[in-house]
Amino acid sequence: MKQEENIIPYGRQHIDEKDVRAVIETLNSDFLTQGPKISEFEQKFASYVGAKHAVAVNNATAGLHLAVLALGLQKGQKVITTPITFAASANCVRYAGGEVWFADIDKKTYNLSLVATKKLIESKPKGFFTGIIPVDFAGLPVNTEEFRNLANEHNLWIIEDACHAPGGSFQDSKGVIQKCGNCAYSDMSIFSFHPVKHIACGEGGMITTNSDQHAKKLRLLRSHGITKENMTVNHGGWFYEMQELGFNYRLTDIQSALGITQLLKNDEGVKRRNEIASKYKEAFRGKLSFQDLPEGHYNAHHLFVIEVEKRKELYDFLRTHNIFAQIHYIPVHTLPYYKQIGYDGAALKNAEDYYKKCISIPMFPSLTDEEQDYVINKVLAFI
Ligand SMILES: *Cc1c(COP(=O)(O)O)cnc(C)c1O
């Protein structure tokens, strides 16, 4: 069988001739960075998700860092996130000297539990927490409207980590379809353009927001805090001011050109991801568990996670058959760094139970029917 020789990873980028041509054209243009492709990508991305502003950065981790800074996170302030995410969702709080608090996940959706978050907030005095960073895990949109209502009661900001979910959406209580990253109910949303994610730029990220003030601050911080606007003095045409301690978190024009052509294919890719998910669900229903799809939600399916009792054995078994599954994620509070700073994970039972069983099987638009049948057969043969 052909598949026995080819490795099937859990995720893979899809680059076509159009992408290659866009990059070459940019290489032959006047600007490799700080040129017109960046704002073109930003405008197209903002309009794709339905947000007022999009600010491109060199990766989503930098995006998360700038987002907490733009929201004014101060040393010692406390922010809630999910333990089942990539470490960066929590690390951004640490960069700014804040404290990370984890609330448990929902057993069925694997997303940060609204109930657990509310319980955690209400167990502390008013004003104890500053913000919440929910994650659209595996591509399943968090119901940010519900989180907004909770956040408003306690005066908290919300950063939606939408790295898994460009193209995902949910229906709010008024029946309106809310696309991930449109910031209808969050202050800012974050996307990643790492090649395992939907849109591949090599490295890259985007912050979306509807706030003019936040967008301005993000742009200032991503480029050293240097600006030619609102200067206190002006010595001439060359003059600029460094008004804040910023960073170099810029995306290049080369990456932006690739982002533009990749973005054009995203809807098609998410559609294909949903076809693949339907076929997995049909094959596995009643035999093993997978992520729930709440009514009105459209999952962007960065990942397809199944839960199995003998997870390690399945992982090893699939590897011997050249299926490179992956585990998403080791709970962040159990990572040595977070253990050392004293996070007691005893109350995060759902996250720890989930981690014992979870395994991500191949999910990417160019996965062929033949390859998917092969994966399904191997999983079924194992269980
Ligand atoms: C990938 C990812 C990030 C970080 O993205 P980079 O672009 O690699 O920095 C942050 N949060 C989540 C949930 C991710 O999956």
UniProtKB/TrEMBL annotation:
It holds the Pfam family DegT_DnrJ_EryC1. The keyword Ligase does not apply. GO terms for molecular function: pyridoxal phosphate binding; transaminase activity. The modification N6-(pyridoxal phosphate)lysine is found at residue 197. GO terms for biological process: polysaccharide biosynthetic process. CDD domains: AHBA_syn (cd00616). Gene3D superfamilies: Aspartate Aminotransferase, domain 1, Type I PLP-dependent aspartate aminotransferase-like (Major domain). Keywords: Pyridoxal phosphate. The active site is at residue 197. PANTHER family: DTDP-4-AMINO-4,6-DIDEOXYGALACTOSE TRANSAMINASE, TRANSAMINASE. Belongs to the DegT/DnrJ/EryC1 family. This is UDP-4-amino-4, 6-dideoxy-N-acetyl-beta-L-altrosami ne transaminase. It comes from Portibacter lacus. The lineage of its organism: Bacteria, Pseudomonadati, Bacteroidota, Saprospiria, Saprospirales.
